[in-house]
Amino acid sequence: MLEDRHQPCNGHLLFNQQEVIKIIDLFDSKRSNLIQILHQLQNLYGFLPIEILVQVSNKMSVPLSEVTGVVSFYSFFSTQPRGRHTIRVCLGTACYVRGGKKIIEKIQELLQVDLGGTTEDQRFTFEIARCIGACGLAPAVMIDNEVYRQVNSNKLKSILAKYD
Ligand code: FES
Question: How far is ligand 1, taken at its centre, from the CA of residue 94, in Å?
């Protein structure tokens, strides 16, 4: 049983059981609102650690396997802390052919982060995308909601420098 107090999550963030309960209550603890509840919690904490999922499961009387199943099904949910910005390098066909892989290697070198990972300073989370609709000007990279076209290794440094 979890104690009713602030608890460390992965050593970085704290969450409060009362806050979690308040959000669940906002949606009447209805099973059909599970996705919205998880959204609200992720907005509040930045990610969904297992401690929160257990609490959601208990409070809503939904099996933990169902809660974790929803979280792993939807790519917008994350059980790990995320960076302040998300880099998505496109590896769709056009981008792959025109150097997407080199961009990935350059980002790994510049930021010292693996694919799927988050930089130590929590600045960036680094992911792959499958076509972001800029095939004509490949290779493309998306950072948060901004799309950068015809990216090359030289341009990368100045693009990344815009984000803190
Ligand atoms: S394949 Fe990269 S934008 Fe379409």
Answer: 5
Beta carbons of 151 and 139 less than 8 angstroms apart: yes
Tell me which fold the domain 85-161 belongs to.
Glutaredoxin (3.40.30)
Domain positions in the chain are 7-73, 85-161
- Residues touching ligand 1 (Cβ under 6 Å) are 90, 92-95, 131-135, 138, 140
Question: Do 30 and 61 contact (CB within 8 A), yes or no?
Answer: no
pLDDT digits (tens, 9 = 90+) for 44-83: 888 999 999 999 999 999 999 999 999 999 988 989 888 9
Separation in Å, CA 146 to CA 89, 114, 151, 162? 12, 21, 13, 12
Look up the pTM and report it.
Answer: 0.70
